[in-house]
Structures are given as structure tokens and as C-alpha cells.
């Protein structure tokens, strides 16, 4: 009993509604769907919808469909169909062979419209779009009935057929549901359900010159596929009475139940298609998959994993109230996901040479290094070590500031996984910039040798110069900063000028042979990095920083 109670409390409101439907015998199974319009790339908000719908189907032992809501040919492109399929699969939302296109239901939709006409529930209307709007009224004013509202069934059937047969110009006539012009819900005031529009459809070509409106088409699509729970975002709440009206009047058995949840909004990101389009056109970002964007393709390119997005969606949960989620939470999830899974490598992003003056010339020593100290299952690798190394420029200071424990003349530090070294000085160029740091090492202090003689306060990482591979690293910051204001006064985006930093001569250990696109690593002290899928080649590796190691975001207490 105790356990049971807890389980109920932890369920979200959608699960509670599903439980109720199942216990009352409204349905004996669960079937959900993700219904994208193929008019753009999917973004993090869609990922939430996909994982939510898929997750519910899985939880209840039901099925999940992927259905393209392709009833509006003007904006749709086949290119998007393919990218959407790829994204849904990548997220792990399995739809098996249940890939559907709403356009394949055009005949059923037409038949439903005819049924409504026969029942006196739909009529052909000759008012113009402007007139229809005017007659509709508003929140304060009830609507006015169309003068065509009382056409006979026969006349409506004939006119609707003529609409289908191409007898009328675009916009000349529409089919409207005949519901209630005085309804307080404007969606119920005889909404348009079919329009004449000569548009070539990517799937049905020129077969149709009339197309159904979303509010009519969507419930029929759900009903045809025996969807039980049609989960959508809050803006459709006011459309639910129409949804219910359509499935009822079209006489579907066991009609679906629409449930709304709040859209996911993230801080400090740009999701609006209009803005992204402009960023792409102005060459500010590298296409829709630029790693600073939050399209699913961009997140994948940046190095996010399906697991991290699933964790994120679970943490965010579902709600009935719109709110924004901190971008840092997404970063928290990818850190958590990669922390134990990926090897920790040494990479130098801002190199300076370190020479160990008392180390033998032309000698390469191979040191055993654990791939991930917290996860012994990842094993060990051999890392070359020699007289000349690269270290981070910031790990040396000729005149140390207070509490600086790294290299400065006279100070001893540990070279991670290797020896203790004592800094002896540095060389400078004519401008006074440090070019080389010198030190001596103590052979007794080799890591793993059991040496416990002295303590040092600083440990720095390094890469052996003779075997180092030069690579490119790209560091990212958010493209906009909400605290500084997302938009300028003229409505344009207030862009962060530092959103991309390209570091061309970074050095990594020679352990990246065979690294492939999307492979990710922890670079000790520098963050998590992923091989760029677009620009990286085996000869010239390009890494995207997924996320730094530190975060201000804390989960729980
Ligand atoms: P956008 O305007 O951002 O492209 P959309 O709603 O037009 O979004 P659709 O292709 O119509 O995109 O949406 C497919 C599904 O994804 C719908 O069920 C929609 O409710 C859901 N969805 C879209 N944006 C979000 C979001 N930010 N959070 C959660 N679900 C979303
Ligand atoms: Mg849409």
C-alpha cells in the first residue's frame, strides 16, 4: 500500500489522466504520436514532445507513431521529413514501421467532411476571408451567422464536390463546420474546415485542390491511427472543444483524448525560426546545425547525447504553466552523462613549451594512465612523456600572484600522471612574452611508483611535444544573454560577440587515432569535447567544447 501511494504521487498529471482513462475502461491500451509539420528542423522543445510521447507509450506498454502533419503544402519540404526522421531515431524514440503522413488520409478527411454536410453539420460558405473574420466577432461580441449557413444539404454536397473538382478559384469558397456562432469559444464559431488552394503537395502532387484546416485534420489523423492520448501544447487548450466535436460528429469509435502541457522554453537560446533563419542568412552561424543553436541537429553536433536529453526532459517534467528552464540544467545533464562514460585525456588549449633540462634527450617514456579514475572499467592507456612538453600558458607565472600554486621559479608541482618538476626560469622574446619555461624533474617521484616523499600543492597537465597532434578547438558561449537583454531596441538579437572562440593550435596526446565524428572526451581541466561532424578530418581534428567542467547549477539541495 505504502509503495503504491508513493508511485501515484510521483506521477505527472498526464499519467494521472491516462490512469483514469484506463481504469474507467475508456481505453484498454495507450497509443501516442509525435506529429511534426515538416516545415523546419526540430529543436529542444520538440525533443521534449518526442520523448514525452514515446516515454508514455513505453511506460504503458503501448505504441508510439511518427506522423507528419503535412496538410499545408506551402511551407513543407521533403528535406525536413528526412531530418526529422533522423532526429527522432537518434533520440531513441522507436516508431518501428509506424511512420505516417497525414496527407495519406486526405480521402478519409474528405469523406468526413461529406458526412458532416449530410448531417447538416457543415456548409459551403461564399464569404471572403475578411468577411468571415468580421462575422466571427470577438471575446465581447457574439458572432453573426453567415448568410450561406442554411444552404440545403444537397446544395452543400454539390458545391463541395465542385470545390474538389476545381470549379472555384482559390479562396472563393470554403467549407465551414456548422456549430455555434454565439459560442464563448471563438474556435467553435463555425470554423473553416476546408479551403480551395491550388498547391502542389510533396506527397499527393496535384490530386487535390482543396486542403483541410489543421483543427479539422488533426483530430481525424489521430482517430484514424487509434491514438488514445493526443498530447499537445497549451495553445491548443481552447481548441479542445473543437477537437472533441470533430471526432464525435465524424463518428469515430473510441475517439482520442487531447491533453495539453506547457511548451519547453530555455533561457539564453534562440529557438524562433525567424531569428535562426536570419542568423543563417547573415552567416553569423554555420547553418541550422551550428553548435550554438538548440536544434536537435545542433545539439548532436555540439556533442549532446540522447541520454543527456532524456535526463533533461525527465528533470524538467511536464507542467500546465509556461516557464523557462535554465540552460545550465541542460549542461548539468550532459556532464552527468559523460562523466563516467568518457576517457579523460590531456589536451593543451593555449600552449607554451616546458623543457625539463635534466631529462635525457631523444627519450620517450610511456606512462600508464587511467582512462577515467572514477570508472576503472574504461581501462588504461599509454601516454608518451619526454624532455619537451606543452603546458597551458596560464600554468606558469613569472611573478606569482597570491595563492598561485602552479609553476613559478623555485616552485615544485606535479605533472599529472608523471613526475614532480621544479621550475627554474623562463625564456622571453623581444616583447617580453614568455616563450619557454624551464624546469628540472626528480626521477624518484614518478606517478604510480609509490613515492610519498613530498607534497606539492599544484598539479598541472601536459602533452609531450614530440608526439603531440595539433588540433583545433572551438569554444562556445551562449549566443544571447537574457540578463543583458535578448533583443536590441530595433527588435534584432543582442548577440554575444564571444559566442565562438576558435583555437587553432591546440595540442593533444596521440591517443585520438581512429576518433570519429561525435566521439567525445573529457579534456582534463578544460571540459568535455566532441569531434565535429562537419569540419573534422583525421589529419586535422576539430573539437567542439560541449561544456566546461564547472557549473553554478546544482540539482536538489
Ligand atoms: P515551432 O513553431 O517552434 O516550430 P511548432 O509547434 O510549430 O513549433 P510542430 O511541428 O507543429 O512545431 O510541432 C510538433 C509537436 O511538437 C507538436 O505537438 C508541438 O506541440 C510540439 N512542440 C513544439 N514546440 C514545443 C516546445 N517548445 N515544447 C514542447 N513541445 C513542443
Ligand atoms: Mg507548427
Automatic annotation (TrEMBL):
Give the InterPro entries listed for this entry: aa-tRNA-synth_I_CS, Gln-tRNA-synth, Gln/Glu-tRNA_Ligase, Glu/Gln-tRNA-synth, Glu/Gln-tRNA-synth_Ib_cat-dom, Glu/Gln-tRNA-synth_Ib_codon-bd, Rbsml_bL25/Gln-tRNA_synth_N, Ribosomal_bL25/Gln-tRNA_synth
Q: Does the keyword ATP-binding apply?
A: yes
Give TM segment ranges. none
This protein's UniProt keywords: Aminoacyl-tRNA synthetase, ATP-binding, Cytoplasm, Ligase, Nucleotide-binding, Protein biosynthesis
Which positions fall inside the Glutamyl/glutaminyl-tRNA synthetase class Ib catalytic domain?
A: 30-339
Identify the EC number(s).
Answer: 6.1.1.18
* Domain annotation tRNA synthetases class I (E and Q) anti-codon binding: ranges: 459-532
SUPFAM superfamilies on file:
Nucleotidylyl transferase, Ribosomal protein L25-like
Q: Which family does it belong to?
A: Belongs to the class-I aminoacyl-tRNA synthetase family.
UniProt protein name: Glutamine--tRNA ligase
Which source organism?
Answer: Lacrimispora defluvii
Amino acid at each position: 500500500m505504502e509503495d503504491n501511494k508513493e508511485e501515484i504521487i510521483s506521477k505527472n498529471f498526464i499519467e494521472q489522466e491516462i490512469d483514469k482513462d484506463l481504469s474507467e475502461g475508456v481505453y484498454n491500451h495507450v497509443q501516442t504520436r509525435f506529429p511534426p509539420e515538416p516545415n523546419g528542423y526540430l529543436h529542444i522543445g520538440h525533443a521534449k514532445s518526442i520523448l514525452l510521447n514515446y516515454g508514455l507509450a513505453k511506460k504503458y506498454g503501448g505504441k508510439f507513431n511518427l506522423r507528419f502533419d503535412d496538410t499545408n503544402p506551402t511551407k513543407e519540404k521533403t528535406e525536413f521529413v528526412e531530418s526529422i526522421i533522423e532526429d527522432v531515431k537518434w533520440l531513441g524514440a522507436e516508431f518501428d514501421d509506424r511512420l505516417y503522413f497525414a496527407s495519406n488520409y486526405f480521402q478519409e478527411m474528405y469523406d468526413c467532411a461529406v458526412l458532416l454536410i449530410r448531417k447538416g453539420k457543415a456548409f459551403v460558405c461564399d464569404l471572403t476571408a475578411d468577411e468571415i473574420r468580421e462575422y466571427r466577432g470577438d471575446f465581447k461580441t457574439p458572432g453573426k451567422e453567415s448568410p450561406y449557413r442554411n444552404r440545403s444539404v444537397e446544395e452543400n454536397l454539390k458545391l463541395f464536390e465542385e470545390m474538389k473538382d476545381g470549379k472555384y478559384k482559390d479562396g472563393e469558397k470554403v467549407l465551414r463546420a456548422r456549430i455555434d456562432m454565439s459560442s464563448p469559444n471563438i474556435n467553435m464559431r463555425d470554423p473553416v474546415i476546408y479551403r480551395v488552394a491550388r498547391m502542389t503537395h510533396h506527397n499527393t502532387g496535384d490530386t487535390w485542390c482543396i486542403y483541410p484546416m489543421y483543427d479539422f485534420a488533426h483530430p481525424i489523423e489521430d482517430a484514424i491511427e487509434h491514438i488514445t492520448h493526443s498530447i499537445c501544447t497549451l495553445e491548443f487548450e481552447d481548441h479542445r472543444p473543437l477537437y472533441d466535436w470533430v471526432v464525435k460528429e465524424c463518428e469515430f469509435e473510441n475517439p482520442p483524448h487531447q491533453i495539453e502541457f506547457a511548451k519547453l522554453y530555455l533561457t539564453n537560446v534562440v529557438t524562433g525560426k525567424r531569428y535562426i533563419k536570419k542568423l543563417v542568412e547573415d552567416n553569423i552561424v554555420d547553418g541550422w546545425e551550428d553548435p550554438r543553436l538548440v536544434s536537435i541537429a545542433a545539439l548532436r553536433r555540439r556533442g549532446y547525447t540522447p541520454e543527456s536529453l532524456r535526463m533533461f526532459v525527465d528533470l524538467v517534467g511536464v507542467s500546465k504553466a509556461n516557464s523557462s528552464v535554465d540552460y545550465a540544467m541542460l549542461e548539468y545533464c550532459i556532464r552527468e552523462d559523460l562523466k563516467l562514460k568518457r576517457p579523460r585525456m590531456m589536451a593543451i588549449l593555449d600552449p607554451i613549451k616546458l623543457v625539463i633540462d635534466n631529462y635525457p634527450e631523444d627519450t620517450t617514456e610511456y606512462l600508464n594512465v587511467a582512462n577515467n579514475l572514477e570508472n576503472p572499467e574504461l581501462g588504461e592507456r599509454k601516454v608518451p612523456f619526454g624532455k619537451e612538453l606543452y603546458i597551458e600558458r596560464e600554468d606558469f607565472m613569472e611573478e606569482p600572484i597570491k595563492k598561485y600554486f602552479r609553476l613559478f621559479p623555485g616552485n615544485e608541482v606535479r605533472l599529472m600522471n608523471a613526475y614532480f618538476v621544479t621550475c627554474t626560469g623562463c625564456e622571453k622574446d623581444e616583447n617580453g612574452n614568455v616563450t619557454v619555461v624551464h624546469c628540472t624533474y626528480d626521477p624518484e617521484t614518478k606517478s604510480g611508483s609509490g613515492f610519498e616523499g613530498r607534497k606539492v600543492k599544484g598539479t598541472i597537465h601536459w602533452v609531450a611535444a614530440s608526439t603531440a597532434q595539433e588540433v583545433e578547438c572551438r569554444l562556445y558561449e551562449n549566443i544571447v544573454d537574457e540578463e543583458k537583454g535578448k533583443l536590441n531596441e530595433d527588435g534584432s538579437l543582442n548577440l554575444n560577440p564571444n559566442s565562438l572562440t576558435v583555437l587553432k593550435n591546440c595540442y593533444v596526446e596521440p591517443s585520438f587515432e581512429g576518433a570519429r565524428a561525435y566521439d567525445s572526451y573529457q579534456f582534463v581541466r578544460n571540459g568535455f569535447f566532441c569531434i565535429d561532424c562537419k569540419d573534422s578530418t583525421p589529419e586535422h581534428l576539430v573539437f567542439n567544447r560541449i561544456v566546461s567542467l564547472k557549473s553554478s547549477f546544482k540539482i536538489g539541495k
